[in-house]
Design brief:
Number of domains: 2
Helix content: under 10%
Distance between the termini: 60 Å
Strand order of the largest sheet: 6-12-11-8-9
Structural class: mainly beta
Oligomer: single chain
Number of helices: 1
CATH architecture of the largest domain: Sandwich
Mean pLDDT: 88
Radius of gyration: 19 Å
Largest sheet: 5 strands, mixed
C-alpha cells in the first residue's frame, strides 16, 4: 500500500478465538510519535458500589489518576503491576493526592478489602490510542509505511498485563476491507469476593 493510500483511516476488526467481536480492546499505534502526558492532567477512577468506575481508563505516561471513594465504606486500593506499584491504605472520600504513572504499560488495580473489585489503567507511550466498539471495530490513522500496533484486552489468555503486537500489512482483510486481528481470550470467573468464597471470618 502506498503512503498516499494511508491518508484514509485503517479499519481494524478485533475478534476472539470463537470469531466473536471483541469490544473495549485498546489498540496503540507503536509507529506513531511518543507522547508524554501533562502531569496536571488528572483522570478519575471512582469507587461506586464496590466497583471501579470506569473499569478501564486510558492515560498517557506522565499523567495522574485520582481514586475518589464515593462509597460509604472504606477501600484500600493497590497495584502490584510492573508498570506501577502503589498502595492507598484504607480511606474514605478522597485520597491525599493523585497517583503519577511515569511508565507505559498496563496497571491492574485492586482493593485489598473487596477482592471482586478490579480496574485497569492503560498507560500509553504513543499518541494514537483507540478503543474497539461493541462490534469490535477500531479506526486508526497513520502515515507509517509499515504500521506496528499493539492490542490489549483485560481477558487476554496470556494475562491482563500482556499485549499482542502485530504489523498491519500482513493481516488478512475481509470483504469490507477490515484488517482482522484475533485475540485469545479467557472470560473471567464470576466476580465473587473473598467474603463470598470464604466467609467474613476469612478476612484479616
Amino acid at each position: 500500500m502506498t503512503l498516499a493510500a494511508r491518508a484514509d483511516a485503517i479499519t481494524l476488526k478485533i475478534i476472539d478465538q470463537n470469531q466473536q467481536a471483541v469490544p473495549n480492546a485498546i489498540i496503540e499505534v507503536l509507529s506513531s510519535s511518543e507522547s508524554h502526558g501533562e502531569p496536571d492532567s488528572v483522570t478519575v477512577m471512582d469507587q461506586i458500589d464496590k466497583t471501579f468506575v470506569p473499569e478501564q481508563i486510558i492515560i498517557q505516561q506522565g499523567e495522574t489518576v485520582d481514586f475518589p471513594n464515593s462509597d460509604n465504606i472504606r477501600h484500600h486500593v493497590y497495584s502490584f503491576s510492573k508498570a506501577k506499584t502503589f498502595e492507598l491504605k484504607l480511606y474514605a472520600d478522597k485520597p491525599e493526592k493523585p497517583i503519577l504513572f511515569e511508565s507505559p504499560g498496563i496497571v491492574v488495580v485492586g482493593c485489598n478489602i473487596h477482592d471482586a473489585m478490579i480496574g485497569y489503567i492503560y498507560v500509553a507511550q504513543h499518541e494514537t490510542v483507540v478503543t474497539s466498539s461493541e462490534q469490535g471495530i477500531a479506526f486508526i490513522n497513520t502515515t507509517a509505511p509499515k504500521p506496528l500496533i499493539s492490542i490489549w484486552h483485560p481477558y487476554t489468555t496470556n494475562g491482563a498485563e500482556s499485549r499482542k503486537t502485530v504489523e498491519i500489512d500482513p493481516l488478512i482483510q475481509n470483504t469490507p476491507g477490515e484488517y482482522i486481528i484475533q485475540l485469545e481470550l479467557t472470560p473471567p470467573p464470576p466476580r465473587e469476593s473473598f467474603e463470598d468464597t470464604f466467609g467474613a471470618a476469612g478476612h484479616h
